[in-house]
């Protein structure tokens, strides 16, 4: 299992413009056969800080997601309104 | 609902020392009546980067967690081995 946190930082004046793009990205990604979970959150202290929390079976599934039609179409439209580069954390479950 | 990401950064030489402290923190926190989920992950690119992904009904529940016996006992023991301050993101679900 691969847990992912992806963080986007959008300029405040464009938050309303990216909102429908995020909604479509979430909806279409959840339809991917290999998507185990794909949830989007917004920082309570920063309305332009969008945080995806994702679960994929493995790295190959994440790569398929990143090459999908919806991802390659929507993410560049979102990124036009970034105030800084997105960040990504790929994680394993803590083994104890 | 309150989603939380808490990130700890532990000095590499102390990762094995903090591991049982994290295991106890996860086990005891999951027994809190108000804890909806409390999962711990490790960055694939940084074995000292520990990431909690949490779900609480509200801020009051998180405050009870932070005042609990296990939290106030274990977190200072973990933090002795930090290489930088922990970070916290408090989030709402994206409304679409």
TrEMBL record, chains A, B:
Q: Which residues form the ABM domain?
A: 2-91
Q: Which Pfam families match?
A: ABM (PF03992)
* The keyword Hydrolase belongs to this UniProt entry's keyword annotation: no
- Coiled-coil positions are none
| Record key words, sorted | Monooxygenase, Oxidoreductase
Looking up SUPFAM superfamilies in the UniProt record yields:
Dimeric alpha+beta barrel (SSF54909)
What does the record give under GO molecular function?
monooxygenase activity
What is the official name of this protein in its record? Answer: Quinol monooxygenase YgiN
**Organism classification:** Bacteria, Pseudomonadati, Pseudomonadota, Alphaproteobacteria, Hyphomicrobiales
């Amino acid at each position: 299992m691969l847990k992912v946190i992806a963080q986007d930082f959008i300029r405040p004046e464009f938050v309303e413009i990216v909102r429908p793009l995020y909604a479509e990205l979430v909806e279409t990604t959840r339809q991917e056969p290999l998507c185990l979970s794909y949830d989007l959150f917004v920082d309570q202290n920063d309305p332009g800080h969008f945080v995806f929390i994702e679960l994929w079976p493995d790295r190959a599934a994440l790569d398929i997601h990143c090459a999908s039609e919806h991802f390659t179409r929507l993410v560049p439209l979102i990124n036009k309104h970034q105030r800084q580069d997105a960040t990504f954390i790929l994680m394993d479950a803590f083994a104890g």
